[in-house]
Amino acid sequence: MNSYEEAIEWIHGRLRLGIKPGLARMEWMMKELGNPQKNIQAVHVGGTNGKGSTVTFLRSILSGAGKKTGTFTSPYFETFNERIAVDGKPITDEEWLMLAKKIKPLADRLEETELGGPTEFEVITAMMFLYFGEYRTVDAVLIEVGLGGRLDSTNIVEPLCSIITSIGLDHVAILGDSYEKIAFEKAGIIKRGVPVIVNVKNDEASAVIKKTAENQQSPIFESGIDFSVHVEKSDKVGEKFIYQDSLRLVPVQMDMTGEHQAENAGLAIFASHLLQKELAFVLTAQTLQTALEKAYWPGRTEILSQSPLIMMDGAHNKEGVEALLKTVKRKFSDRNIHYLFAAVGDKDLKSMIEQLEESAETISFDTFDMPRAASEEDLFKLSAHKKSSKKNSLEWIEEALECKSDDVYIITGSLYYLSSIAQEIKKQIRMKNIK
Q: Are residues 363 and 340 part of one domain?
């Protein structure tokens, strides 16, 4: 392994092992490395939707307060390296190669044991712990759970606090087919005595989270009870809201759009106040306001063009589609909506499509290069809309850019799909604007 490209090829080759929930392989690798994860001050972020946005908001706040902040997120959107970043800047190709060369011998040895070889995500998680625990000192590391929580490879960390953003019926084949079962897996990141901040609205899931926190003697802080956000004004883009807890009231204006994004920002604001003592910083209202206004997370209610209005949103499950449609109803109820949709095949596709069709003037279906991706034909067959079609992203965006009306064009579905087309879509929009 002598180049970044070879390192990425080796990492992707681990996909053959699929998903193998459990902590034993991670614990084995960390022990061999001297347990670097114990050297970091972490915030652990789990939930069904909103993890990446919450990490982005909290990173922006901590960085704005002068704290050097690492992040671990998935999936990547623009470059593979962004999965491990410092203050929003992905680590270098050279650093990826160095980390891969450190982990590969361990992966080879582990393959010969009864535990079996580590998965792709376990390898990347090990690289992250090694990077922040041994090579790059930062003030805090914000760690996004990969899948579930209890048996996720990130769950060997002992964080300063945990955040659970939401509970939805996603990955049911692995996590369980009820809110209670999924909440049990998500609640697995709650550590004894460690505060947990939650925005869980389903009653059954909330009860599981509260019971777990009680059993772990962990202080629990709930959105809507211990702190709240009130959206005051909904522009065509962005949100203006009031954040309030028992000590403060802060007006916020941010570019990321949707009530759910305001709620995610609320989680990050409360977490930042909770972390002030542990991380030794002073947080002012001005710092919060500036940080949230600057916060940016690609593919999440991201406005790509104003005229025509083109938006990209990774609504990759039923709850994600519901959040998107709530935003559409609030902001664009008087306009025609055109959707381009692609998704992986293990989601509740029929339900997702039916939801989109309720507000669609037209709906088009695409696919992408991933073994789990649903074909455009299969998606099309699930549609009952009178103006549905199969159309690739370039055809669809070309038609959108020719639009002279105030119609709204929304690309949605799998984040993997959005990631695969984002650069070309943005290129087409830039070319149109140049003309």
A: yes
